[in-house]
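Annotated sample (chain length 273).
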Amino acid sequence: MSKPTIHWRSSPESRNLVAMALDVRRFSSLTDPERNRVAVAFRDATAEAFTRSGLAEAWHRRVFEQNAGDGIVTGFHEEHLGAIVDRIPAALQSGLRELHQRSGLNVRMRMGLAIGPVSNIDDPRIDIAPNEPIITACRLADSAPARTALAHSDAAVTFLSVALSPEAVTFTVRSNPLWLRESEFVKVRIEMADKGFHTDAHLHVPTLSGDLLKFGLAGPYPPEAAESEGPARSEARPADSEPARQLPHVTGVIGDNGNSKIGIIGDHGRVQM
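Output written by the structure step:
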């Protein structure tokens, strides 16, 4: 299948970038030592997800990375959009679950992915222009649908929810699907009136559990299962009662240069074709 043309055009004033925002759930409920440990762990897990997905070069050549406190915002060259959408969610879900089994550290994350033109600013104080793709990725990761997916799933099973912008969907799973298909996403509406942000998005959860299986990814869910504002001792903290378990070594994602059959690394360290 031919690759769709992205209609934006780069220029000396702008370039098309993929923006990936990652937020850690319940980060503010942690102590400072716990935050330090989680900050290192999720960065390691993200880098490993790119490596095991055959995208180590894309990670090392990322255009920018901003520290968002409870997460990061990272930019990639536009040609990596399809592979990132197709491979990274499953690989990161697997890596975070392995981290929990290995160390007891429960790091659950929300991902927002967007693509579009980002301006070049000749000012050493600004590492990247705060343009629409970056803002959109951050809003998607912070959105109610992405949060709800984690709130209504098993904290020991589901470690990642992903929200894609309409443009990211158009240029990947809708018109040029590889491993993932559009049917594995649910269209949601995101309304953030206080921020003046309104958009459609596509929600994906690599590993469903809990209410997501009972009621579907789009819900609605029973009100008694709503997310609590208080700290969850079982999340982002070492588990006291569950012994750590070492999983088999995972070798990576198998593919044809990202163009055809792609192997996704499963939660038990097996490559699935």
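Annotation: Residues 14-221 form a domain with the Alpha-Beta Plaits fold (CATH 3.30.70.1230).
Annotation: Residues 1-11, 225-234, 238-273 have pLDDT under 50 and may be disordered.
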